[in-house]
């Protein structure tokens, strides 16, 4: 399983006669988190990181080991969501995907399988599948969770 890196869109760019100069931001799954001011979503990101140590059968039955890609996608989503992420509860699923549950799952959930998609179901707000680029919370989900 090869770690993925993502490069965001340049916040600015200009072109000289032969060269385009731009700034880029990058996120690597291998880079350590930078030390800085605490952010509201840090505890959810840390909880998701703990799921990397789960092994096959972590539930005492036949649960699959959580997918690293699913964990990374969920962490990126939580970071992109910011302080609103404090209303979400990370949970590993027996199929190896990661859930972010709203109100302990009573109000809805978001599912990450590590394929760049978010499957969501939010009571009274809607359900569906949305692409997640690792940086921007899909608009349909943002509206549904009131972010």
Ordered list of secondary-structure elements with their pairings:
Layout: E1 5-7, E2 13-15, E3 20-22, E4 26-28, H1 42-50, H2 68-81, E5 88-92, E6 98-102, E7 108-112, E8 117-122, E9 126-131, H3 139-145
Helix pairs in contact: 1-2
For the structure shown, list the relevant keywords.
147 residues; five-stranded antiparallel β-sheet; two-stranded antiparallel ribbon; disordered N terminus
Task: Explain the overall architecture.
- The protein is α+β, with helices and mostly antiparallel strands and 147 residues long.
- Mean pLDDT is 81; it is low at 1-12.
- Helix 1 runs antiparallel to helix 2.
- Strands 5-6-7-8-9 form a 5-stranded antiparallel beta sheet.
- A hairpin with a 3-residue loop joins strand 8 (117-122) and strand 9.
- It contains 3 helices and 9 strands.
- It has one domain (39-145).
Quick take:
This protein is of the alpha+beta class and 147 residues long.
Beta-strand content bin:
25-35%
Number of domains: 1
Structural class: alpha+beta
Quaternary structure state of the chains depicted: single chain
Helix share bin: 10-25%
Distance between the termini: 33 Å
Q: What strand order characterises the main sheet? A: 5-6-7-8-9
- Output the number of helix runs: 3
Largest sheet: 5 strands, antiparallel
- Could you tell me the mean pLDDT? 81
In angstroms, what is the radius of gyration?
17 Å
Name the shape in a single word: globular
The ordered H/E elements are EEEEHHEEEEEH
Q: Tell how many strands the DSSP assignment holds.
A: 9
Low-confidence stretches: 1-12
């Amino acid at each position: 399983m090869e770690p993925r890196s993502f490069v965001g869109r340049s916040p600015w760019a200009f072109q000289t006669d032969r060269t385009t100069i731009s700034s880029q931001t990058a996120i690597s799954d291998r880079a350590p988190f930078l030390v800085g001011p605490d952010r509201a979503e840090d505890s959810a990101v840390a909880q998701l990181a703990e799921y990397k140590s789960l092994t096959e059968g972590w539930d005492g039955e036949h649960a699959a080991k959580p997918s690293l890609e699913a964990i990374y996608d969920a962490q990126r989503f939580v970071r992109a969501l910011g302080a609103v992420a404090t209303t979400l509860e990370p949970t590993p699923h027996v199929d190896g995907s990661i859930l972010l549950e709203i109100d302990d799952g009573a109000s809805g959930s978001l599912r990450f399988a590590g394929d760049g998609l978010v499957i969501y179901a939010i009571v009274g707000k809607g359900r569906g599948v949305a692409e997640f680029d690792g940086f921007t919370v899909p608009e349909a989900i943002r509206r549904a969770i009131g972010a």
